[in-house]
Amino acid sequence: MTSNITDINPKTYARAGGIAYLVIIVVGLFGEMFIRDAIIVSGDAAATAKNILASPVLWRLGIAGDLLMHICDMILLMVMYTLLKPVNKNLALLMVLFNVIQTAVLVANKMNLMTPLFLSGDADYLKALDPGQLQALAYVSIKSHAYGFGNGLIYFGCACLVSGYLIFRSGYFPKVIGWMMQIAGLCYVINSFALVIAPAFADRLFPFILLPAFVGETSLCLWLIIKGVKLQEWKETTGALYIEV
Predict the structure, then answer these.
(1) Number of domains in the chain
(2) How far is the C-alpha of 81 from the C-alpha of 116, rounded, in Å?
(3) Which of 51, 121, 159, 245 has its CA 20 to 30 A from that of 141?
(4) For 123, phi and psi rounded to 5 degrees?
(5) Which residue in 210, 223, 225, 227 sits closest to 15, CA to CA?
(6) Nearest to residue 80, comparing CAs of 199, 178, 148, 147?
(7) Which residues of the chain have pLDDT under 70?
(8) Cβ–Cβ < 8 Å for 152, 120
(9) Is 155 domain-assigned?
């Protein structure tokens, strides 16, 4: 294989991706656990609407945080494609396509979280509905967001299955992380399809089925930040020289 000189150490790519991944994990958990879980009252549309009306800035911060998370998705996606392309370019491209669909679905899904803010306003056209109807519509929109999020994770789960395989085959990432990412992907796919096909069963699975996903993704995130890639194995796979930066 002909050697080529890249303008950046692959470890720098890896660490940039790891930092983006860390932002995704932290912001995602914060939005769910400390914002939406604190505002949404399960099964109570009136109480949920009251909480949103009392804390509209906090609700908007949760949405903004999700959008920041999806910007970081693109950074991480570029990094993972760059690092995994030497293993199998076509599969790395498939991983990108799955991830792009996931991100597009989740970004569009944020409009479901904006709708309760619109319904809590004082516009004249809202007077056609009584407060109870407006609260019910707002809660349905929040429920739709939960299902839209699950739909997006089907594609992310498929992306994890592919990236896990590429990580396992790479030689410059630990094989165990590849296995964990594939398990994570399988958990996402099972959970999301259960949400569509058998919601009651999905409720029994959650949140335990997503614990392996959290472990797998966090392990990959920390490896990217702390270790990056095994440089000797990277050079053997790619035939590339690199400049230390």
Answers:
(1) 1
(2) 37
(3) 159
(4) -65, 150
(5) 225
(6) 178
(7) 1-8, 239-245
(8) no
(9) yes
End-to-end CA distance of the chain: 24
Instruction: Single out the residue of 21, 6, 144, 140 nearest to residue 86, CA to CA.
Output: 6
**What pLDDT does 3 receive?**
43
What is residue 123's predicted lDDT score, i.e. its pLDDT?
83
Phi-psi region of 49 (alpha: psi -120 to 50; beta: other; left: phi over 0): alpha
Please list the residues that pair with 241 across neighbouring strands: 5
| pTM greater than 0.85 (yes/no) | yes
* 245 located within any domain: no
Q: Is residue 216 part of a domain?
A: yes
Alpha helix ranges (H) inside the chain: 10-30, 37-39, 45-54, 56-84, 89-109, 111-119, 131-170, 175-197, 199-205, 211-226, 231-238
Distance set, CA 119 to CA 40, 115, 125, 135, 173 (Å):
15, 6, 10, 8, 49
Tell the burial category of 145 from Cβ atoms under 10 Å away from its Cβ (0-12, 13-18, 19+): buried
Q: What local confidence, expressed as pLDDT, does residue 203 receive?
A: 85
Residue 228 tokens, joined: 């990056």
